[in-house]
Structures are given as C-alpha cells and as structure tokens.
Task: inverse folding
C-alpha cells in the first residue's frame, strides 16, 4: 500500500516537473525562440546521464517492481529544487 502511494507521488511530481520545467517552459519563461543559450546548469538538469535529470528518471523506472521509490522521490524533490532555483534566475 505504501509502495502504491509512493509511486503515485513520484508520478505526480514527475508530471509537474515535465510541465513546469521542460524546454518549452524554459523558452516561454526566458522569452526565447530557441535553446541556443540555455545555461549549462539547466541543460544538465534536463540531460545529465550521471545525476538526477529527466534523462535518468523515467516513468517506467518508477513503476518497476524492484524500484527504490523512496530514492526516486528524493531525486525528484532535489530536481524540483534545482529547477526552481535555476528558473528563478530568469
């Protein structure tokens, strides 16, 4: 039961991040038409293969039977904080 709750929370937070901190959201907030001048910190949050990013946290990972949902939730919370911090500089 707790696993299902954690999976639901992880999915909701990931959806929130994808909605509010995607490259499209960045372009709207920064009022730019392309991604040529994206700060490296934001780019890493989108694509880094070595730390928590959209590239390393997938919905399929969250739903996996052997998923460490507590660690995934921690990573998503950290990711939200980092995105908020970087997007507030725009």
Result:
């Amino acid at each position: 039961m707790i696993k299902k709750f954690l999976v639901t929370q992880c999915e909701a937070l990931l959806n929130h991040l994808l909605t509010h901190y995607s490259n499209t959201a960045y372009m709207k907030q920064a009022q730019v038409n392309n991604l040529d001048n994206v700060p490296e910190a934001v780019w890493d949050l989108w694509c880094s293969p070595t730390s928590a990013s959209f590239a390393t946290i997938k919905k399929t990972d969250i739903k996996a039977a052997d998923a460490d949902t507590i660690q995934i939730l921690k990573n998503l919370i950290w990711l939200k904080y980092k995105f908020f911090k970087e997007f507030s500089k725009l």
